[in-house]
Amino acid sequence: MTDFDVDLLVVGAGTTGLTLALQAVDHGARVRIVERRPEAFRPSRAMVMHPRTLELLRPLGVTDALLALGDPSPSVQLHVRSRVVPVSVENLDLPGTAFPHLLLVRQSDVESVLAAALAERGVVVQRGAEVVRLARLRQGGARAVLRTTDDEPDEDVLCRYLAGCDGPASLVRRSVGGFLGGDYDQEVVLADVDLGPAGAGSRAGAPVMLEAGVAHVVVGRRGLVFLFNIGERASWRMLATRRAGDDRQPFGQAGPPVPQEQLQQLFDEAGLPAQITEVAWSARVRLQHRIASRFSRGPLFVVGDAAHVHSPAGAQGMNAGIHDAVNLGWKLAFAAAAGQRLPEAPGPAGATVPAGPPGTRAAFPGSALLDSYALERRPADRALLRLTHTMYWAEASLHPLAQLSRAVLVPLAAPLLPWFTRQRRLTAAGIRTLSQFRLRYTHSPLSMEVRASLTPVRGGLARRVLRPGSRVADTLVRCEGRRVRLHELLARPGVHILLQADAREVPERMLGTLVHSYRLDDRPGTGMLVVRPDGYVGLRAPVLDEQHLAAWLRLVGLPVR
Length: 561
Description:
Layout: E1 6-11, H1 15-26, E2 31-35, E3 48-49, H2 51-57, H3 63-69, E4 75-80, E5 83-88, E6 103-104, H4 107-120, E7 126-127, E8 129-136, E9 142-148, E10 155-164, H5 171-174, E11 179-195, E12 200-203, E13 206-209, E14 215-220, E15 223-228, E16 236-243, H6 260-270, E17 276-292, E18 296-297, E19 300-302, E20 308-309, H7 317-339, H8 368-396, H9 400-413, H10 417-421, H11 424-434, E21 448-449, E22 476-479, E23 482-485, H12 486-489, E24 495-500, E25 515-520, E26 528-531, E27 537-541, H13 546-555
Parallel strand pairs: 1-2, 1-10, 2-7, 4-14, 10-19, 21-27, 24-25
Antiparallel strand pairs: 3-6, 4-5, 8-9, 9-10, 11-16, 11-17, 12-13, 14-15, 15-16, 17-20, 18-19, 22-23, 24-26, 26-27
Helix pairs in contact: 1-4, 1-7, 7-8, 8-9
């Protein structure tokens, strides 16, 4: 049997890799995380965190720090030709969540918070270390050859699982599968800039002020311009789209600085009344829309930008990567622990635990758990990619039809924008879609339902809302004599068993450090819900069924005494 150095080797220490490492550590895995860049800081490309992402990070204990560093109630002004429309994105009409808002936060701050949380758990990012070769082992697991930036010899690392969080040019993905999709003929220009005194400019000869402390968004015929008052090396962070140059800059990699006059031209074309006085940093990045043909191969997994890359539309890059990482981290940890134990007895009659080919899962007796990552996340990421591609075509494509549509339709719609932005439910519906609140893993091998002619699950655990594979909403419940938000109960690592008021107790042999049980006193009935560590329903039953509960726990690699 292979003596592995670690359970999980994470390649890449951006937001995705750090989240994956943190989720895996909190669920019992031995983790090592490496990053080829020698320095922690790099200019942020992402600036927006969605409500569902905050929910997913809450059990990791980092949301308070993120909220303290970000702005949960950003003011936004939408610029459409000469019209400026204020948009409210605070306290949206989003029931069932503790975070009814977007969070404006720098990607670099998110990385700092996650890295600090990981260090508190005894895992420090090894920087200046690059995986130069990797291979799958016949007996299960993987071998990675690690090269540091100093003169030390290459190091062999044996791991049960290896996760590539190493971006669009992922070395790990090349060992897993292809990268399907296409390229945009545009690039994103990023810059940290200072503007003239108080953002003064001129329009039609009259002084005009570009309001500070506000996120400015411009939608025009030539594309998108975003301006955030949270620059890292200067007061403002600028993000704009334009036609790519002819120098064939590698996709996803930061290109050379952009001259100040070109940045000013983007401002002027967007109609932003501001004069750039200093450029502290700038870069340009070629855009593409792609998804990996496979998300896993044996012990190798690709996550985040290594698995899919998006346009800037919808602010999905950082968020989608965190969704991937939270989904995968607990599964790898549980699988690693199961691989260290002797194979367990089969489940009861009627409960199936699929078995994988020997050696392909590092001695884990069932493949359903690890296969569920690709089965759940690839369809979700593919749908998200279609959405962002459509949004980007409408907002910024240089296709003549798209440009004509913006030139004609946007001015016609401009008078209606103030009314539209006041419709909080419409705004909330859009945020709910972008934030992935509606995502369900209905067809996952981990989504099980016990059907019987007994009393159905009722009340706050309604069939309409909480089918297997669906997200558990944050509702007010009574537990152990006190009123509490449901997500407060779920805000720690592990599997959570929710019992209705009249359900039987969960046997002690099924509980443990990572298996918790709660009785909801104000929810009448005998039903049971098993909530996965990522907040989705795994098992639903009209009564506490020990056989099916034990089968589900074994399915995800947990021991049942």
